[in-house]
Structure formats: C-alpha cells, structure tokens
Amino acid sequence: MSILPEKLKPYRSLIQNFTSLSFLQIANYLFPLIVLPYVVRVLGPAKYGLINFAAAFIAYFNLISDYGFNLSGTKEVSIIRDDKERLSKTFSTIITIKLLLSIISFLVFISIVYFIPFFKENWEVYLLSYGFVIGGVLFPGWFYQGMEQMKYITIIQVFVRSIVTVLIFILIKEENDYLLLVLLNSSAQILIGAAGLVVAGIKFKIRFRLPSFEEIKIQLKSGWNIFQSMIAINVYTTSNTFVLGLFASETVVGYFAAADKIRMAFQGIQSVLAQTVFPHVNKLAKESHQKFVFFIKKLLKLETAVGFSISVILFLFSYQLTGLILGNKFAASGELLRIISVLPLLISLSNVFGIQTMIPLGYDRAFNRVISSSALLHIILLLVLVPEYFAVGTSVAVVITEFVVTLLTFLFVVRKKILFSVSGSCL
Fold first, then answer.
1. 219 CB-near residues (< 8 Å, 6+ apart)
2. Those residues with Cβ within 8 angstroms of residue 136's Cβ, 6 or more apart along the chain or in another chain
3. Distance, CA of 66 to CA of 198 (rounded, Å)
4. Do 101 and 33 meet the contact criterion of CB atoms below 8 Å apart?
5. 180-190 pLDDT, tens per residue?
C-alpha cells in the first residue's frame, strides 16, 4: 500500500527519482566535500591546483566522448522507454559512438601530452586523469535518467564513493601522494561505469548489437545541436580552471578551484532537481503542452527559491566557509567564493528557461545559438580579464556570462509566450 498522499501519487516516479538522485549527489558532492579539508591541507594549493587543472583539461575529451548524450540520449530514452527493441538499438548505438569518439580523443590526447612541453612536464597526472573519460564512456547515466530509474546506479555510486573516501584518508599522507589521489578517483569512475553497463543489461534486458552506419549517422545528427551547446557550455564552466592555469600559477588555480568546489557542493540540490525533472518534462512535452507549461511554472518557482537561498548563504558566509573547509592557506578563496556566489541563482533560472523548456519543446537550435554566443563572449572576457586579474578576472567573467545566458533564455521564452502572459506574469 502506498504511503504517498493522494495528490502526490502522479509524481511518484519523480519523487523516487529525486530521492535516488539526492543520494547520488551525496556521493558526487558531499563525499568530495568531506575529504576536501583534508586533501587541500595535505597537498597544498599548488598540487591541488595541478590536479584540478588536469581535470579541466581532461573535461574536453570527456565532452567529445559524451557528445551531449546526457541530454539528447536522456530525451530519446524517456520517449521510447516502453519499446524494448528500440531501447536496445538506441543503447547500442550510443555506446558504440561514445567508444569510437573516445578512441579518437585518446589519440589527440596522447599527441598533446607527448609533443607539448607544458603538458609533458606532468604527463603522469594527465594520463591517470584520462580514467575519467573511460568511466564516462562506460557509464550509461543518460539511460537511467531517461528510464527514471536512478536507484540502481545510486547504490553502486554511493558504495564505490564511500570506499574511495575511506581510502583517501588512509593512503593520502603527504604532498607527493597527489598521483595516488588521481588514480583512486579515476579508478572509481571506471568501476562505476562498468557496473552501470552490467546492471543495464541484467535489469532492463538490454541486448547489445553492433549498429549499422546509418543508425550511427542518425544518432549523430539528432544530437548535433545539443553537442554544440555542450561544447559552448564547457567554455564558461570547466574551461575556467584550464584557461586560468595557462596564465596563472598552480597555486592561484588551486584558490579558484577550491572556491568553485564549495559552490558546486552547495549547488548539488539544484543538480538533483535538474536531472530528476528533465526526462519527465520531455515526456510531458510530448503528451500535453498545457501540463508541460503548468509543471514548468511550478519548477521555476521552486528553482528560484532554492537558487536564491543558496546564493545568499554563499555570499554572507563566503569567508567563514573557506576558512572552515579549506584552512588558512586558502584565504584568497573567500573573495572568489563571494564573487561567484550569485551563480546558483543564475544557473537555476537559465536551467529552467533553457534545458527544461527550450530543449523539450524542440528549440535545440535556438538554445545552441544562445549558448554559442555566450561562449564567444566568455572567451573574450577571459582573454581580457584573466591575464590582468587572474582568479578574480575568471570569477567575474563567468558571472557575467551566466547572467547573459539567463537573460537570453528568458527573453526567448517571453518572445515565444511559452510561460509568460503578455503582462509578464507567470502565474
């Protein structure tokens, strides 16, 4: 017998998925936050900065291998979830594409690390970090999200992350253990990815078969606009640490990366909301436009309240948080956290207007134009601000860019009269 109130029963799958994703975020954000005070004190700003610079560098190859399937794959699976044959075909095609792209990425990666002295100097860090790409290729998160069945991989994630967290406290004892830290984290990602594949095959009876060239071509074409958007989004998210590392010392990179880690940990609840509702809104968009709009309006109010609350907390207690979590060596991170404290609010709004509204309604191209133009602006801002102001310039640049993304997606939704009446009210 269900213990859910009657009015919440229509949202049963959403509630279950939200609960599972909440536990997943504990693994992805809170566990790293638990070890963050210990790791930054043991490694220091320089080595911590090097690890995060390598992670930002690797993120480009992860992005290529993923091809935006975290959105386009999720969207397709949410629509065909009841057709076992189509599910297996889509699953096989996407995994094959990701494997092919990862091979190409690795060849490019090896060439850069081997031939460019800047990267060759610390080649071990980059090579070990590539495990995140392998794990990302294997991990079918897009499939579980589309099926709204995150509970299975949540158990795997939390279990593996728990073990790694314990191992970090046991094995990481001095600054020279930074390579071991990278190895632990990347190995965990590979293990999670492999387990995710096995569970998908057993639980959902997915049967892998080699896709045809035409099937690969269709899948690449359908995900192209979202892939472009993901590249552009990467420019003003993970690229910040990478670009900063090209102009500033590893220590300065460490200050920025640590502040951003705290921001992302607090913002974890927003990631849960976004991942939970995305397959649901895609399903609603196909079934009923009226129900879709009604749900998005409710989501907008919730996301605004959550984003505003997090931003206020980060702004008011930025120096206290960095002092408590990071220690005295990272005093400079307090100022950076205060600057980027507005991001949770801006990202919550742009997520609703862009990813949760524009993409489900088929405005992929328009969304891509918004993100691409904002990415171009961000590159200009970085080139102007970072060489002069380093981490502060990076922080200011990302805030300005996120504001522009929010503004442009909002204006698009208003122009199309999707959520708002002529008077501008969304009620």
1. 90, 93, 94, 97, 211
2. 62, 65, 66, 189, 193
3. 19
4. no
5. 999 999 999 99
